[in-house]
Amino acid sequence: MERTVAAIRKGTVIDHIDKGQGLRLALHLKLAERGCPVTVGLNLESASMGRKDLIKFEGGPLTPKELTIISLFAPRATISTIDAYKVIDKVSVSMPKQVVGTLVCYNRSCVTRAEPIETHFFVGLERGMVVLQCRHCESSFARDVVYG
Asked: Cα(123)–Cα(5) distance, rounded to whole angstroms?
């Protein structure tokens, strides 16, 4: 398979992102605010997935909050740490059962919007869609409508 995305010298590669989630993930991770080069590959060929998205960026390591966001929006992702153009570490993520303090509740009447209370969501699947349920207001909604 021909390489379609340039290599990076030092940074992070988030691979095996479900097609259509790469831009959404880059926005949630606020990669544009890091001030470093970022490459987002969309609809790339993949032997295991058919089509996939991919993100590469130079700079420092991911925070725990960023790892949670990746596991929620790209639960099959692999995260590679690159140094001198070589992979020095590679980890896989999986979908969390709960997400705490990372996202904003979609329900505008939720107490977490008005009070300094940490958000807490239970994560589940319904008809193949990732669904979040707020522990505080019990509202359920699709993962794709939340923001961090």
From this structure: 32
The Cα-based distances of 49 to 15, 19, 45, 53, 71 in angstroms read 11, 9, 8, 10, 17
Average pLDDT estimate for 14-20: 93
Tens-digit pLDDT profile for residues 43-52:
998 888 899 9
Is 19 in contact with 52 (CB distance < 8 Å)? yes
**What would the pLDDT profile of 110-123 be if each residue is shown by its tens digit?**
999 999 999 999 99
Between CA 1 and CA 23 the distance in angstroms is 23
Query: Do 36 and 92 form a contact (C-beta atoms < 8 A)?
Result: no
DSSP symbol at 6: -
Please count the CA atoms within 13 angstroms of the CA of 86 that sit on its side-chain side: 2
